[in-house]
Amino acid sequence: MRKAMIVWGGWPGHDPDLCASMIRGWLRAEGFEVRIETTTEAFGDPAIHDLSLIIPIYTMSKIEKADALNLCAAVRGGVGLAGHHGGMCDAFRESVDYQFLCGGQWVAHPGNIIDYKVDLTKPDDPIMKGLKSFEHRSEQYYMHVDPANEVLATTTFTGEHASWIEGVVMPVVWKKRYGAGRVFYSSLGHRAYELDVPEIRTLMTRGMLWAARE
Fold it and tell me: What sequence ranges are listed for the domain ThuA-like (predicted)?
């Protein structure tokens, strides 16, 4: 049985406890044994090197450098990393080691909760196969991203809420390699109920399975 660890905490506005519960259920349905932790010290546990998958759900907050480096080493050695929204890519803003691992960092969501479109860029990728571009209402994340990411979906900013970014095409879903490990990320899912949007639930589940070490 493959083993996964979910670590949740940080800013409560992203429903980290509810998201952790939902994702634990999805992973159990896929045959994973799931461990839940609520402190960043869990990333420093030597035992995480034996896991198949790690899911951070920990917006903002701080992480000790040794714990971040242990997490990076675990993924570099083959453990998968997957997550969504600020729970993964607005965590530990001071840790460049963690940002290098994840492939992106949130910097803004102009207009806050707005209507926008998610466009699939690789509809034939196994993670996105059968899905179509869709409209969504939530935070439209503006991010600083790693050009090495393999982008699976994007969104285009209209400039209505920040005129200087009109026409900017921003990655929404990506996957990447980090050493021997696989990393998956989706910027969708500001609140827990959004994870039940069929497209979001499908791409998240497939992305976690892709990232997980066999």
Answer: 3-211
Residues 176 and 83 sit within 8 Å (Cβ to Cβ): no
Backbone angles phi, psi at 59, to 5 degrees: -60, 135
For the chain, what is the HEC assignment? CCEEEEEEEECHHHCHHHHHHHHHHHHHHCCCEEEEECCHHHHHCHHHHHCCEEEEEEEECCCCHHHHHHHHHHHHCCCEEEEEHHHHHCECCCCHHHHHHHCEEEEECCCCEEEEEEEECCCCCCCCCCCCCEEEEEECCEEEECCCCEEEEEEECCCCCCHHHCCCEEEEEEEEEECCEEEEEECCCCCHHHHHCHHHHHHHHHHHHHHCCC
Give tens-digit pLDDT for 4-24: 999 999 999 999 999 999 999
Ordered by where they begin, the domains of the chain are 1-209 (3.40.50.880)
